[in-house]
Write a structure and sequence with these properties.
3-stranded antiparallel beta sheet, about 40% helix, globular, about 180 residues
Length: about 180
Amino acid sequence: MAQSSPASKKPEDTLFYWAGNAISCKYPDEQQMAKIVQISRRLKAVVVGDNGERYDLDPNGKVVVDEKAPADLPLPMVYGAGARSCADFTQAITDAASPKSVIFYNWYLGVVTAVNATRHQDGKSVMTLDLNAEVVREDQTFLAQYCREHPARSFQQAALTLLQMRLARCPPEGKRPLPLEPSQE
């Protein structure tokens, strides 16, 4: 995930971090951002900013923000864990005795399910997540990092940002995996 650079940034302040199958970089300059996009292409990944914007390179190698990235929409009425703050999520994950972090993650999976149902109905590709320990850890690392950086935002915003990253990894339209048929046993 990338953020715009502040005026006081020094080159040694920009580091690349790898955690949970994601590479993060805070305050990259133009050259570093171009390198991030080049790396993402080699990994068949995408560069997504903190607000869901996507970064790419134009034919001349200059960094551009993808104009097709979803625009900010007014938030609908939100219920459950999504209505809580990122600070609440951060607190939940630090309290090892509390099951609240599971409630937050299950809320996110409910959003994934709803989006997949809508996308399938519209003939678009859907996310297929193998919910193994690695994927769950990657998601939770992403959500924790986002919420630590944006404690005043809602957990819904964190979940939607993760969802945009996951959707960006979906196969292109028309390359949707075949639906699984129930076994006839």
